[in-house]
Each structure stands twice: as structure tokens, then as C-alpha cells.
Write a structure and sequence with these properties.
Helix content: 40-55%
CATH superfamily of the largest domain: HUPs
Shape: globular
Low-confidence stretches: 1-7, 95-100
Number of domains: 3
Distance between the termini: 68 Å
Structural class: alpha/beta
Length: 410
């Protein structure tokens, strides 16, 4: 192994670079060998990770590429965090069988408010080699119509229709709107405007990132690396999502984070460690071996939950969340730091739960109630649609491991 040394503030460490290129990475373009050679050269490279503020908080799906960006920054490379304030108003059609709701400028700015604080847990925003935060409205919002026409001339409809979700809509007779075709072009143009060496994103963003790679070659005559990370999926292959009720939001409380991880299937333990934490791979291999030998998966899952909470909130909060979780189930107690929702007279409880990011929508709340997944801890009974409408103060359990304390003024 080549020893570690510094050259122009860039760290050259073959072990760390190999882990960066392999851990949680699905694909690298043009290929892993070319990128490794660039990282081993000692040249300071620039990489960006883009995030559209379509929701009020960063979630687990964003975290996997963020951790790759963290590794690159720790090696001395320049990281750009691109806030897609312009593209968020259009909506990424990726994996969508129907058109996304377009957001207003006001909604986007509200969603951006917590992002910087959450990102600062993983990416240095101050001090040495600090990351740069930029907004793509800076260039996309200034484009004239003739600029857009020139950009669209660089890509064909046939290229667009190769995207799985568009092809599926054609087969199902569902509409595809022109603005959805424009989204990959705009995301691709971000690379041109930033003039970066590389981009990091989830594997579901590969088409968009490769569009940027093609535009860089055409417009800048420059190579662009693409690092596409793996996705955390359940045993059926479905992405973690809000509708499944197990998507961790970085705004979640330590207790809620811990409980959500404990609700994951056993098959997600090792991928969760690998993709969503910075636990050394030798420790993860040891956890896999213990599972192979018949160790209780609950113990390994608790270690994963503790590692994830510690990474977000620190060791003390992680230990408290673990103690609270097991007290809740071994002694049938309510979690001490369960999320509290305060209601005033006339408030709609469903709306308050949505505002607190406990449920994503009223339709999802209805689905959970009809599935018997919401329990009135205070009354020791499942919540029905009728009883929820008149629910006042008390304790709710949502799913297997999430507790909410409702405090309503009488």
C-alpha cells in the first residue's frame, strides 16, 4: 500500500481512496480506475452534490452520497453543495409514474431553511477546506429563451424516452410534460455552470448525472466523473420512502431515529451499516459474522441504530435513545423523549402531525389507521378513523417503534 502523504493539502492514501471508490458505490463513470488515478495524482478536484429542497428536511436517501462527499472533503478535495432552488420548482420526474407537484418559490425557500444546519453535521461549512453552498437559480434563473432552445438542441427525444419512468408512462398511456424533459437538461447544465471535475448522487440520479457529463464534453470539452451511490432498499427492492413510514429524516428526534432503524428488516442491517454510517468496515464484517453464527439480529440492529443516532446527535443522545427504546418495550413505558405535538383548540390533529414530519400526508395517515398501525397507548386500543377525529391528549404508537405524545388544550 502506498503510504499516506500530503501534496498541496490533498491527502493521498490508497486505503481510504479504495474504500471511497467501493463502499456504498454502485457505478463510477467513466470507470473506477480512471477516477482512482486522478485521486492518487495529488491534484485537488472539485465535486458537487445537488439536492432539491422539495421537502422540509434532508432524509436518509440524501445521506449516502453526502457521506461520500464527506470522504472526498477529508481527503482535501473541494466540495460544492448545490441547492436546487430553481429545479425544485419543477420537480425531478425520477421514479415517478405521475407528474410531480410544482412548488412555489416561497415553498422552496421555506424548505431550504433547515438544510444548512443538517448538512453541517457531515460537511465542513467553515474553516479549512470548507464546502461551498450555491443555488442553481443563480444561472438557471438568468437564462433567456434562446439559451434554453440552444440547450435543448443538445439532446433528443429518443434519449429522453430511454428513461424507464418515461417509457413506463408511454406504455400506460400517462402524460409526459415538456417541463419534465427539461429537468435532466437543467440538472446537467448545473455541471457546466459549476465547471466541476465530478458529481456525486444516488444511483437513481444516474441518467441526470450522465446528462451533465455529456453536456460537459460538448460545451466544455471536459471529462466529468460521476459517482453513483447505492440505494438503501427493503427486502422487496423498494427504496426507503415516506409512504413506508420508515424513512429517517435528519429532523427526527434521537428517539424517533432509533425506533425507525429498529423497525427495519433484518436484511437491512449490514447495508445500513455500510451505506449510512462511518463504522469501519472491519467492524461491519464482524457484525456480519456474528449474524452468520446465529447472533440475535436485534442486538446488531440496536448497534446500527446507536451508531446512526450518534453520528447525528452525539454519543450521549444515542445512549439515551437506546435506553429509552428498550425501556419502552421491556417495561411497556412511553419513551421519555417521544416527540411531543401540542394542539390548540380548533387545530386539526392530522395537520399537526404532518407539520411535525411524523406522517407525510393525510392519505398516509388514513392508510396507517385502516391497517391498524396506529395504537392509542393511553386507552390500550387501536385507533379508528372515528376515534382519531375526536382524539385529544394522550399517547400514540405509530407502527412498531414510534411514539408520539399528544398534548391538546381542553
Amino acid at each position: 500500500m502506498i503510504g499516506m502523504f500530503k501534496k498541496h493539502t490533498v491527502v493521498i492514501d490508497e486505503f481510504r481512496i479504495n474504500e471511497l471508490l467501493e463502499r456504498s458505490v454502485e457505478n463510477i463513470f467513466p470507470n473506477k480506475e480512471v477516477l482512482k488515478k486522478a485521486l492518487m495524482s495529488g491534484k485537488k478536484l472539485s465535486f458537487y452534490f445537488g439536492i432539491d429542497p422539495t421537502g422540509p428536511t434532508i432524509h436518509m436517501g440524501h445521506l449516502i452520497p453526502i457521506l461520500v462527499a464527506q470522504k472526498l472533503q477529508n481527503l482535501g478535495h473541494h466540495i460544492i453543495l448545490l441547492m436546487g432552488d430553481f429545479t425544485a420548482m419543477i420537480g425531478d420526474p425520477t421514479d415517478k409514474s405521475t407528474t410531480r407537484k410544482q412548488l412555489t418559490r416561497k415553498e422552496v425557500l421555506i424548505n431550504l431553511s433547515a438544510y444548512k444546519k443538517q448538512l453541517a453535521r457531515f460537511i465542513r461549512l467553515t474553516g479549512h477546506n470548507k464546502a461551498q453552498i450555491v443555488f442553481n437559480s443563480t444561472w438557471l434563473g438568468q437564462m433567456r429563451f434562446d439559451d434554453v432552445v440552444r440547450l435543448t438542441s443538445l439532446m433528443t427525444v429518443d434519449q429522453m424516452l430511454k428513461r424507464d419512468m418515461f417509457d413506463k408512462r408511454v406504455q400506460e398511456g400517462k402524460p409526459i410534460f415538456i417541463h419534465e424533459f427539461l429537468y435532466p437538461l437543467m440538472q446537467g447544465y448545473d455541471s457546466v455552470a459549476l465547471d466541476v471535475d465530478g458529481e456525486i448522487g444516488g444511483n437513481d440520479q444516474t441518467f441526470n448525472m450522465l446528462t451533465g457529463r455529456d453536456l460537459m464534453k460538448t460545451i466544455k470539452k471536459k471529462e466529468k466523473f460521476v459517482i453513483a451511490t447505492k440505494l438503501l432498499v427493503d427486502p422487496s427492492g423498494k427504496k426507503m420512502g415516506k409512504s413506508e413510514g420508515n424513512m429517517i429524516m435528519l429532523s427526527d428526534s434521537p428517539s424517533d431515529m432509533f425506533g425507525k432503524v429498529m423497525s427495519w428488516s433484518d436484511a437491512m442491517i449490514i447495508p445500513g451499516f455500510t451505506y449510512c454510517t462511518s463504522v469501519p468496515m472491519k467492524n461491519i464484517h464482524a457484525a456480519q459474522e456474528r449474524l452468520n453464527q446465529g447472533n440475535n439480529p436485534r442486538d446488531e440492529k440496536a448497534s446500527l441504530a446507536e451508531a446512526f443516532v450518534e453520528m447525528n446527535y452525539g454519543k450521549e443522545a444515542a445512549q439515551k435513545a437506546q435506553t429509552s427504546f428498550f425501556n419502552s418495550f421491556s417495561k411497556k413505558e412511553m419513551s421519555e423523549d417521544a416527540l411531543v405535538v401540542v394542539c390548540e383548540e380548533g387545530d386539526d390533529l392530522a395537520t399537526k402531525l404532518i407539520e411535525a414530519n411524523i406522517i407525510p400526508s393525510k392519505s398516509e395517515l388514513r392508510r396507517l389507521i385502516l391497517a391498524g398501525s396506529i395504537f392509542n397507548v393511553s386507552q390500550n386500543e387501536k385507533v379508528s378513523l372515528e376515534s382519531f377525529k375526536i382524539f385529544k391528549s394522550g399517547n400514540l404508537k405509530i407502527g412498531k417503534h414510534r411514539f408520539v405524545r399528544i398534548e391538546c388544550a381542553e
